[in-house]
Amino acid sequence: MQKYFATVARSLEAVAAAELEKLGASHIEPGFAGVSFSGDLEMLYRVNLWARTIFRVLVPIAEFRATTREELYRQVRRIDWQPYLDTSATFAVDVTGSNAQLNHSHFTALQIKNAIVDQQRERDARRSSVDLLRPDLRLNAHIYQDRCILSLDSSGGSLHKRGYRPAMGIAPLKETLAAALIDLCGWDPALPFVDPLCGSGTLPIEAAIKALDIAPGLGRDRFGFEGWPGFDRPLWQRLQSEAKARRHERPRAPIAGSDHDRAVLQLAKDNARRGGLKAAIHWQVRELAQLEAPAPQGVLVCNPPYGERLGEASALGSLYRTIGDVFKQRFKGWTAFVLTANRELAKQIGLRPAQRLPIFNGALPCTFLKYELY
Predict the structure, then answer these.
(1) Do 291 and 196 form a contact (C-beta atoms < 8 A)?
(2) CA–CA separation, 209 and 193 (whole Å)
(3) pLDDT at residue 75, rounded to an integer
(4) Where are the domains of the chain?
(5) Helix, strand, coil shares of the chain as percentages rounded to 5?
(6) Across residues 85-97, what is the average pLDDT?
(7) Residue 58: what pLDDT?
């Protein structure tokens, strides 16, 4: 059994831990902005393929004291890099964290790179090349206080990039956050799902991915582990085939997204088409005040503008009041959720939340508000 570390957005550690448990991982331990877990090679591949709320899956290979550039260089050079990196392969180094001496990520990465290629030159008179965009091996170095953890990045890039969303609106949710919000709702795909302020469509698209039991990783063209020595291609192909066979043809209940902006809604349609979800989601150009519930019961989730990024909060009061009016008048019997970073605007909804969950949208502290509509 190998120990792994899944990086996640702040405040979503418990959501990611629950997802890892469902995928069959063991020894699951949530931490800060990440969850450690254990599993075999198949579990590593499976988590990369199926995880909806995780950014990257790291494989720790060394932990050591590193307080200066010189100490970092010595420690990295002591590691035998032959099992991980052939001189014909390319690599890149990502650095997170810092300490008093190692406080510049670019120069820290350069020290690690130098240590690796100097070892290669000494042993083989050849060295690997650096490829920052598409390396065969991507390394992650995390510096915290006087320690450095070196890991292999099995994902090779953030898993929130599903492959369906080059088209984005003004302030889009990351796919991983949208998926986490849907999990936090407790939404059953047998119930309708509506986002009345859908923008470029991330929430309805992630709802459709869940409803159709689609492995999010099927939309990616490559994972980091595919460039590693010992990559098990038959195992990976089997897992992909199993995932493709699990996909449902259509959702059990309607999934809908609407927006008043026709051009933005076209972005959502393009993203859904790119993800193979053209027929799974009903899109509609509609003002919020004209919205009607498509069924007696369901789940509504929205991410209205907060004021910080999309205009002054004072101009958004009427939008939040309209949200409250629509909830009260048109969606009785439903459960509604609103993500907001502005407490004063949230008060304009005019309803008492049944629950308040603290959530980070990037670096922005937000609250996920739940409303039971009777």
Answers:
(1) yes
(2) 12
(3) 98
(4) 2-153, 175-214+247-372
(5) 35, 25, 40
(6) 96
(7) 98
